[in-house]
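pasting for the record
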Amino acid sequence: MKSIVLFIFLAAFSLTSSASEQSSQNKPSENQQQQALSQLQEPMYRPLIERYILDELKAVREDQMRLRADIEKKISHSQLDTADRAITYTTDTINNVLFLITAAASILVVVGWSSFRDIKSKVEDIVSQRVGTITDEYEKRLQVLEEKLRERSEEILNNQKKISITNEVHSLWMRANLESDMNSKIEIYDEILNRKPEDVEAIAYKADALLELGQTNTAIDLCNQALEIDSDYGYAYWQRACAYAMLYQHADAMADIRMALEYAPNLKNELQHEPAFASLADNQSFNELVNS
């Protein structure tokens, strides 16, 4: 590039020297020189600057091309290095796997498994044993689950049966409360006892109905039966006290009255209104109990 610029300057210099010679030969006047200078539109050195810029742009383009070539070369080398490492890793891995397989086969041969048939039979035995163990375990679990389901089903059926019996007993109690005939009430109480044999309330109310019919001894037997089932049921003592009072067994009647009031204090309000206690009207202990 410097040689080109030097050449341009030499050419310009030679042109100027020849021009000076010609000017010396044909030297114009000062007026002619002023006119020539006024006719100049642009500086004479502009083509030299454009040429210099073009040369610089060309140099920049060449530098960029060399830089691009260097970068592509480096990228190619890095890709080759990566591929080489991957191939080396794969080769090493395969060699290690083959080595492990060879070692495993050698161990199998040493312990006595000399053929793949022996290996297959051993594996089948191990699998069958394991499957058998798992099957037995799950069979036990299923048996436990079936037992729980059976117990739960029985419990549900029993609860349904109890609910059905409770509904029937409730309906019978409503009928008994609406019934005015004592014989009919006794029949209803018997139906309740057929469904719930240990219903002490039904036994006590049946004894009450029997007292209304004058069957005191049978009523006492029913009260004893109710107290055997539940010794804390105050109404059974009350009904038995009524029966004893009707039989004029005042001492037994007073004892049962006290027991009835102990377990059911609300019965005290019925002492003066109970017709069965009419024979106790002159009993001092009974009157003291009423007035206490």
